[in-house]
Specification:
Arc Repressor Mutant, subunit A; Rna Polymerase Sigma Factor, Chain: A; mainly alpha; 189 residues
């Protein structure tokens, strides 16, 4: 269900005043997109649904703080991502290795700049998602935060209680593993 700006504003104001119907409207309007975000952080649909439910509860508790100056979807997405991070911290699913602190800085990643991705043009998004789900929770979380949420390595390190070097190492290893998994789907011309 797509909401017009006026419908969204009315639903948010209804949520602020505790109206359950307005909460349902918001929930149904954003469920699909936010579920996709949660599924990037876990392989298990039930876990993703739990994360999303927790995120919506937090959003409805904090909705009075939304001031309409930015995108509601962006505001909600931030809550969903933070909930995913909290979930992994709480369940201690992030297993990290302290190593490779000498990887290149995020702004100077020459390997990424020099990679030829043209061989991957015909890979379907479903294949990429399937490969992402095969990453360890640590690699998957760092990859998602860096690539999809535009977190810096410092932000990732702060959020996950790891070092910047560990964040860089996990990202590099995630990229390497993804590339390896996707290579079997590449057809050369």
């Amino acid at each position: 269900m797509k909401l017009s700006p006026d419908q969204l504003e009315a639903a948010v104001k209804g949520c602020i005043s505790g109206d359950r119907r307005s909460q349902e409207v918001i929930f149904h309007a954003f469920f699909g997109k936010m579920m996709a975000v949660c599924m990037r952080y876990t392989r298990d649909k039930d876990t993703a649904q739990d994360m999303l439910q927790d995120a919506f509860i937090k959003a409805f508790e904090k909705i009075k703080d939304f001031n309409f100056s930015g995108s509601f979807e962006g505001w909600l997405r931030r809550i969903v991502v933070n909930t995913a991070i909290d979930h992994f911290r709480k369940n201690k699913n992030i297993v990290t290795l302290e190593e490779d602190a000498n990887l290149p800085d995020e702004g100077n990643d020459q390997d990424a700049a020099n990679d030829d991705f043209s061989a991957f043009e015909n890979i379907k998004p479903e294949m990429v998602i399937e490969a992402m789900h095969k990453l360890t929770p640590a690699y998957q979380t760092v990859f998602n935060l860096y690539v999809f949420e535009n977190y810096s390595h410092k932000d990732i390190a702060d959020a996950l209680n790891i070092s910047v070097g560990t964040s860089k190492s996990n990202l590099a290893k995630a990229k390497m593993k993804l590339k390896g998994m996707l290579m079997k789907h590449v057809t050369y011309k």
